[in-house]
Design a protein that fits this description.
Helices cover 19% and strands 32% of the residues. The chain is of the alpha/beta class and 402 residues long. It folds into four domains: 4-18 and 175-320, 3-Layer(aba) Sandwich (Molybdenum Cofactor Biosythetic Enzyme, Chain A), CATH 3.40.980; 21-44 and 139-173, Molybdopterin biosynthesis moea protein, domain 2 (Alpha-Beta Complex), CATH 3.90.105.10; 48-127, Molybdopterin biosynthesis moeA protein, domain 3 (Beta Complex); 329-401, MoeA, C-terminal, domain IV (Beta-clip, Beta Barrel), CATH 2.40.340.10. The strands form eight sheets. Strands 7-4-6-5-9-8 form a six-stranded mixed β-sheet. A six-stranded mixed β-sheet has the order 16-13-17-21-20-18, sandwiched between helices. The protein binds adenosine monophosphate and magnesium ion.
């Protein structure tokens, strides 16, 4: 049996290579860049007005005041989308709207509020400074400047900036494809109307499918297989043939007579990376690799399956997308003793009680059995206790939040 840290290191050293693709920005939401990107265009693209008003030459109206307004002749208009294509001559003014191109010759914008129109003339009452309310070409960034960086996640803000500078396609990591294989002869689909006394509803399929999506994976197929070596080998071969980066299995990975996942994986050509970890829950976890496909044999007990997913599958999905998943954590005060008297790393599911202006309190969730789904569904997170670790009430502990 190996430790959690050792297992995570082996896994990190055996990742399949992430897939790099180039996609239109419309399809890039939530993906991560695999290269830095330079701005193809400058921002602003052209010198334009920050206000509705008049584009003028500062020398013509520098002395304007409320008592002694300056009068200029209106010689045309520059509208957003319809520029004024001549030069602003001495004592001329061009009506201008926000975002419209500043015509050549003009160097200053006078706001509408500081003017009054009289026929084909405009009276100017105030000029604060030369160049006021002019947005200069390239003042935000010039074409060729680095704008995005490898590892950036593309959300609404980044995509808007890409659209603005004319980036049509972007180099990103593809979301990793995942196949789900759920074993167990006792299982029936959760929505089955009738269920026999010896059967149980399959809760791992919906849990793992949701967790895969939450982690940015693309679930390409889900299969339920009976506890048979032959069927399991067949299903695993199908998973490899589909080209999925990960095959996530549930159940059948322990030492029982009807646990076939490990043997099936070896028969299907996977090389074992590790099996059995000094952790609770989740001791039977099996991980193997065949070329560019990893197989995760998660234990069937739902809490074990979830915690193994969280600590082993989720980080791999993150790395395949060109990122790392950092747990949200907080430091809380232990409210009742927490201890690990066993020999394995213990993941204790806990509740957090937030107190105004004080550190939160952390308390163990009542039921900790690996078959007790309420221990994760009702928990806020978990703490990690190493063998022999005892935390007295009042001590501080870091909590990983779900
Ligand atoms: P296994 O790891 O296959 O020995 O399963 C361990 C326990 O988890 C057994 O009690 C199973 O009935 C239960 N179990 C296995 N798979 C599922 C599942 N998909 N949904 C709910 N419980 C399961
Ligand atoms: Mg089973």
């Amino acid at each position: 049996m190996i430790s959690v840290i050792e297992a995570q290191r082996i896994l990190h050293d055996n990742l399949p290579s992430p897939e790099r693709i180039t996609v239109p920005i419309e399809e890039a939401f939530g993906l991560y860049l695999f290269e830095d990107i330079k701005a193809p265009d400058s921002s602003p693209r052209y010198t334009n007005s920050a206000m509705d008003g008049y584009a003028v030459r500062w020398v013509d109206c520098a002395e304007a005041s409320a008592d002694a307004p300056v009068q200029l002749k209106i010689i045309g208009e520059s509208q957003a989308g319809i520029p004024f294509n001549r030069e602003v001559s001495a004592n001329g003014a061009v009506r201008i709207s926000t975002g419209a191109m500043v015509p050549t010759g003009a160097d200053t914008i006078i706001r509408v509020e500081d003017t009054e129109e009289l026929g084909d003339h405009v009276k100017i009452f105030t000029v604060i400074k030369q160049g006021q309310d002019v947005r200069h070409k390239g003042e935000e960034f010039a074409a060729g400047q680095l704008l995005f960086f490898k590892g950036d996640c593309l959300g609404s803000r980044e995509l808007a900036l890409m659209a603005a500078v004319g980036l049509h396609t972007v180099p990103v990591y593809a979301k990793p494809e995942v196949t789900l294989l759920v074993t167990g002869t006792e299982l029936v689909c959760h929505d089955e109307a009738t269920i026999k006394p010896h059967q149980i509803r399959d809760s791992n399929t919906i849990m793992l499918a949701s967790a895969i999506r939450e982690s940015g994976g693309v679930l390409t197929s889900t299969r339920h297989v009976q506890d048979s070596l032959e069927y399991t080998v067949g299903a695993l071969e199908g998973g490899v043939a589909s080209g999925a980066k990960l095959i996530v299995c549930s159940g059948g990975v322990s030492v029982g007579r009807h646990d076939h996942v490990r043997e099936a994986a070896l028969q299907a050509g996977f090389e074992e990376l590790f099996w059995q970890i000094r952790q609770k829950p989740g001791k039977p976890l099996f991980v193997g690799r065949k070329e560019q496909t990893l197989i995760f044999g998660l234990p069937g007990n739902p809490v074990s399956a979830y915690m193994c997913f969280r600590n082993f599958v989720r980080p791999v999905l993150a790395e395949l997308q060109g990122t790392t998943c950092l747990d949200n954590t907080l430091t809380a005060i232990v409210s009742e003793q927490l201890s690990n008297r066993g020999k394995r790393t213990l993941f204790v599911r806990v509740n957090i009680e937030n107190r105004p202006n004080q550190l939160a309190l952390v308390k163990e969730v009542g039921h900790q059995g690996s078959h007790m789904l309420s221990s994760i569904a009702h928990a806020d997170g978990y703490v990690v206790l190493q063998p022999g670790e005892v935390l007295q009430p009042g001590s501080l502990k870091e909590v990983s939040l779900f």
